[in-house]
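Anyone opening a protein record will find just a pair of labelled lines. The record below illustrates this layout.
***
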Amino acid sequence: MSITDTVTTAARNAWALSFGAGIEPPNPAPSTVLWDEPHRLLRRYESESASATTDSAVLLVPPLAAPATCFDLRPDQSLARHLVSTGRSTYLVDYGDISFADRRMGFEDWVTDILPEAILRTSADRGGVPVDLVGWSIGGVFALLTAAANPELPIRSVTGVGSPLDYNKMLGMPQLRAVASLTGGQATTALVRAAGGIPAPLVKIGYRLAAFERELARPVFLASNIARTETLAKMESIDRFQAAMPGYPGRFYGQIWGRFILANDIGKGRIELRDRTVELADVRVPVLLVGGTADVITPKAAVEAGLRTLTGSPSVTYEVAPGSHLGILAGPDARHTTWTYLDKFLAERD
């Protein structure tokens, strides 16, 4: 590229970021909404060229407090598009926005209602085929607990990408528990109950703080890459993802705070719901776990803990991928690491 072209591109990108509509408009993968109810929208991704070639379906399971677009940030950062391109029938359950009215929703709503319903509808749409669950972050925990609590469901396998399975391995836990011990852990939960949960703006701030180095380096990154349109488009897709983050329901956050952060029940392989105890040892299907080398939100050791607690699974495969929490799912190396691991894992089930 000549100097003139570089300057022109840089000027155009600077204008698009500062005053225009952005570097690249959203371009979601083609899909059809099969079911649309609060917190349980079910979407089927459509192939632009070929029909499905496998006798199974993949259901993508997002976490809470993160938009379902995590699986489809942009065309070359889309696990959904990749799965469809390999001949797999691919579906997504989308929880939508979380408001004060949802403050009583907790893990049991996902584990015994929302996800079982999505799994059955996904299977039925393909004539009763088994379903492979692929969850990111807490979405992977949802998927594992759902498989453990509902052995009758047509689940063929579970994949957890960056899924926290031992909070003793999470960064800052000793310090956080020390602070919580001063109030018996009640001050935080009381504030959350009063607010009905964690509102979306606070979730966005928390995510940015977790990626503080990225935020700090942003001005230098922009200056260094102002003429690299593709690089800026990837940055923009992450910014758009962060801007769309929903909140946490009050009961759900209370469970995370009390049972996961303070008591580390998940690290002990179990979680208490309203009317039952769910044991990770009751997962009876093959499991794939992927941890990230640079993941500060869920360190890879917290993912690897599943090798210890998923004792009822016929096989637990643990892989490591370079990248951050979102990077191992949709970053520049994901196609050659996480997606490849998933392709191999699913092919072994076919």
DSSP finds 15 helices and twelve strands in the chain. The chain has one domain: 3-349. Residues 191-200 have pLDDT under 50 and may be disordered.
